[in-house]
Write a structure and sequence with these properties.
Elements (H helix, E strand, L loop, with lengths): L2 H17 L16 E5 L4 H6 L5 H13 L7 E5 L14 E4 L5 E4 L1 H14 L6 E4 L2 H8 L4 H4 L4 E2 L7 E2 L16 H15 L11 E3 L4 H11 L4 E9 L2 E10 L2 E6 L1 E2 L2 E2 L3 H16 L4 E4 L2 H12 L6 E3 H8 L7 H8 L12 E2 L7 H29 L2 H8 L2 H10 L1 E3 L1 H26 L8 H11 L6 E3 L6 E3 L3 H9 L4 H18 L9 E2 L1 E4 L9 E4 L13 H4 L2 E2 L4 E8 L2 H9 L3 H9 L3 H10 L22 H12 L5 H8 L3 H14 L2 H16 L1 E3 L5 E3 L6 H30 L3 H4 L2 E6 L2 E7 L4 H15 L3 E3 L2 E3 L3 E6 L5 E4 L1 H4 L2 H11 L7
Parallel strand pairs: 1-2, 1-5, 8-11, 9-14, 9-16, 14-15
Antiparallel strand pairs: 3-4, 6-7, 9-10, 10-11, 12-13, 17-20, 17-23, 18-19, 21-22, 24-28, 24-31, 25-26, 27-28, 29-30, 31-32
Length: 837
């Protein structure tokens, strides 16, 4: 057969696949008496070659996952919806999901006929559990879509009357790095399937949900909550108003309190007022613990709208992130793991534009179920945390919720006049930079146009183009993004750094200097108490659409952040905290020696890189040619320490710091020669992961890694101990210590922000310099509690900065603040009586 004939036969076969439903089920096997029936979407290339279902990589993965779950492949009937291989393994001509309003599934006649043939076969099955693998099979058996949401749910089949369905992700989707974590989800589902195959009927918890309560019933239920040690709470919000609030005294006993019903008030004005007063007393009562999912949202919203404080707080989202740092932390995922097959019933969210459901009663049920499942999941999560050895880490992480809610509401005062001036100055600077880059290029160029920038660098200067791969299509396209400009700047092309500066200044205008402040000229944000796997919070704009990410503000904006009238700003910063933790973790002798002599580690590194005495290292910008004059010698030491500690390569170092490849490689090589213990430490981490599968930081936080073995995992592992130790130390011994303290001196301190290794607060001037000195000393002493690692103890000292804005602050080193009399005198001289405002 010649090559042309093979091509013609292949095309004919492809066409035949698209138009004919095979009579035989070639890609199904196993006994109809098997207790489990697994249904895939269609055979692939290897299945087609062997005329068997679930072989090749996907089949091998399925076998491995079944074995991990205690299920034999012989216990399963194996099926596919389509009994032919789609052309190029593309099933979209037969079934696809169309996005848009509401979304909808579109099927072809071939798919519909295949489903009917599947039904005929499945009706012969005596399986107690039918398991659709992936979206097409899920749709065929239940009429539902979104497998990642429905997986693990126990639901009735719409194809087979009275039969039980438990969907899970197709094992083919879990092959490779991108979705490796899916393997764990499939195992959780298969373990449930193994339990459920003992009986054919659906046995879900019978929950009592009070969805249409009278005013009297609401007030009695609130009273009943006082008799319980813990209750669950959840709110729903439409148009910045609470529409529903649910309370649960048990996993099977929940009340939804509706405040609106079909666009009208549910209670009279007097009744609603009485309900809110009763709720305020309950939610503030210290004897009843409140548990919820992402209660930071509920607590912030209720405080802003009604002045209601929720305390004390427990949170399933925080528990989930502590248990499973690599897994999702939404309530839908928590339910799929902890609620014994409770069907997926919601999209994650508390804030809606309008009623997202078909009826108001369905919305009420949704709200009630949020509290019900939290009450069911939370005790199980606490048991898992104790077994894992992470209960204390959870308790300490949950403790930051209240202070985060406080600083969300407090906000930071912004110098609005200064912001106006900054806008005008930035517009002027952009004009100057544009003229400069136009002069270099030789004609006016739109720096925001990737097409024009690419034409200049790639066509005119004949630079080999940089490409970027679209993750959705896999296609490569020419790019001139920030990384490319950083590379070109590092290679010495003069237009590139100016273009980067123009983009930065435009971002300052569009993102920062035009940020929407609240009416009181304060910038507020919304915190996520588990924004990172290392225990640090993250932030974004406020719940009400104002403000911005307070944890990622540039120096230009920090200059505009000012204390309230009659206050002064103070920043407490753990001095070179991560570098100290790394030094003692991996016994980096030169760094340890420098720290114990009281020397600056970044200056030490610079002296060793440049081959100069430590006391001659400059901190002046432009004191080195590396980076084309942008940096000081100390900057190079600092950037090396912060990058290479965690396995950063020379290429990435060159790009992120805009230095030449030659300089980056030279610095990288020198740095590792100076600190050979770092690579030894990396190898030790890898070996610990091989033997245990987890790491424990210096304060007892345990991190179990669920990503695929390789460089991605190692980079996460290298930084875990140092970063999470510093985050936990700051949270426990600084942030929470200040917030929960009974000391009158500390209670006068008003927390404003917590940023990585530092705490920003303001303090009343009228209390005097001695009071401020005492507060700084108390917190610094507490932060100076020693850390221990493998028999060696060390202290992370605190540096103090004080000033009239959050950037231009006077620094005081640790040894300056512990002499009370001297420190008080310095504060008197530097600030008191000199308030420029």
């Amino acid at each position: 057969m010649n090559q042309l004939q093979k091509i013609m036969d292949t095309l004919a076969a492809a066409e035949n696949r698209e138009t004919v439903v095979p009579e035989e089920a070639l890609y199904a096997e196993g006994s109809y008496n098997a207790p489990i029936c697994l249904i895939g979407e269609a055979p692939g290339e290897e299945e087609e070659q062997q005329n068997r279902p679930f072989v090749g990589k996907a089949g091998d993965n399925l076998n491995r996952l079944l074995h991990s779950s205690g299920i034999m492949r012989t216990d399963c009937r194996l099926e596919n919806v389509l009994q032919f291989r789609p052309y190029k393994n593309d099933i979209s001509p037969y079934i696809s999901y169309k996005t848009g309003k509401g979304g909808r599934v579109v099927t072809s006649p071939i798919f519909d006929q295949s489903v009917q043939r599947l039904k005929e076969r499945l009706e012969k099955s005596n399986a107690t559990v039918f398991v659709p693998l992936g979206n097409p099979a899920l749709y065929a058996l239940t009429g539902k879509w979104r497998i990642t949401k429905w997986r693990g749910s126990i639901i009735p089949s719409t194809l087979l009357e009275g039969r039980k369905v438990i969907p899970t992700i197709h094992p083919a989707a879990a092959v490779g790095n991108r979705n490796y974590v899916y393997n764990y989800f499939i195992v959780y589902d298969l373990l449930r399937i193994a339990r459920e195959m003992a009986y054919p009927d659906i046995r879900l918890m019978n929950r009592t949900l009070y969805l249409n309560p009278s005013f009297y019933e609401v007030m009695e239920y609130i009273k009943l909550c006082y008799t319980k040690p813990m209750i669950a709470v959840d709110i729903e919000v439409i148009n910045e108003e609470v529409t529903h609030l649910s309370l649960a005294i048990a996993e099977d006993n929940v009340m939804c309190i509706p405040f609106y019903d079909n666009g009208k008030d549910y209670f009279t004005a007097a009744q609603e007022g009485a309900v809110w007063i009763a709720l305020e007393d309950l939610l503030h009562d210290q004897t009843v613990v409140k548990v919820g999912q992402n209660l930071t949202f509920d607590a912030t919203f209720l405080h802003r709208k009604y002045g209601i404080c929720i305390r004390p707080i427990e949170d399933t989202m925080v528990a989930c992130k502590t248990l499973f740092p690599d897994f999702p932390m939404g309530l839908d995922f928590i339910v799929s793991i902890y609620c014994n097959g409770e069907p997926y019933y919601k999209d994650e969210g508390k804030k809606w534009l309008k009623n997202p459901f078909r009826s108001h009663m369905e919305f009420r049920r949704y709200n009630a179920m949020d509290s019900a499942v939290v009450m069911e999941a939370f005790p199980k999560m606490m048991d898992d945390l104790k077994r894992q050895g992470n209960f204390e880490s959870y308790v300490c992480q949950a403790a930051i919720i209240e202070p985060l809610v406080y600083i969300q509401e407090k906000g930071i005062l912004i110098n609005t006049e200064g912001m106006k001036e900054a806008r005008l100055s930035t517009e002027k600077k952009i004009g100057e930079l544009q003229r400069k880059v136009d002069e270099i290029v030789g004609y006016p160029i739109n720096v925001g146009s990737s097409k024009q920038v690419a034409a200049y660098f790639y066509d005119e200067l004949k630079i080999k183009p940089y490409y970027k791969t679209d993750p959705r299509t896999g296609k490569k396209h020419v790019t001139t993004d920030v990384t490319v400009l950083q590379r070109l700047a590092g290679r010495g092309y003069p237009a590139a750094p100016i273009m980067l500066d123009i983009r930065h200044q435009r971002k300052m205008l569009s993102t920062y200097y035009t940020v929407m402040l609240d009416k009181d000229d304060r910038m507020r944000c919304s915190f996520n108490p588990v924004g990172t796997v290392q225990g640090r919070p993250s932030s974004s704009e406020s719940l009400f659409g104002t403000g911005a990410n307070l944890l990622n503000q540039p120096a230009e904006m920090k200059k505009l952040m000012i204390p309230d009238p009659g206050y002064i700003m103070v920043n407490l910063d753990l001095s070179q905290a991560e570098n100290r933790a790394i030094a003692y973790q991996w016994n980096v002798l030169k760094m340890i020696s420098a720290f114990e002599r009281g020397e600056d580690a970044h200056t030490l590194t610079a002296s060793l890189i440049f081959g100069k005495p430590i006391d001659t290292i400059s901190n002046e910008k432009g004191s080195t040619d590396i980076g084309f004059g942008k940096y000081s010698e100390r900057d190079i030491g600092k950037r090396s320490n912060h990058g290479f500690d965690y396995g950063l390569g020379s290429d990435t170092f060159a790009v992120t710091n805009q230095v030449s490849q030659y300089d980056a490689k030279r610095i990288h090589s020198l740095w590792h020669a100076i600190y050979p213990e770092i690579r030894q430490g990396h190898r030790a981490v890898e070996e610990e992961l091989r033997s245990k599968g987890y790491l424990i930081n210096m304060l007892g936080r345990k991190r179990i890694f669920k990503v695929e073995w390789g460089h991605k995992l190692f980079r996460k592992a290298y930084n875990f101990n140092a970063q999470s130790t510093v985050a936990d130390k700051l949270n426990r011994e600084g942030f929470c210590f200040m917030y929960y303290s009974d000391s009158e001196l500390l209670q006068a301190a008003e927390l404003l922000n917590t940023i990585y290794d530092s705490i920003l607060f303001q303090y009343p001037l009228h209390l005097g310099a001695a009071a401020l000195a005492s507060v700084i000393q108390i917190v610094s002493y507490n932060l100076a509690k020693p850390l221990s690692w493998k028999g060696r103890s060390f202290v992370i000292p605190t540096d103090v900065s004080i000033g009239w804005n959050a950037y231009e602050m006077k620094e005081y080193k640790t040894d300056m603040i512990y002499n009370t009399e001297t420190f008080t005198e310095m504060l008197e001289e530097d600030f008191y009586g000199k308030n420029p405002r």
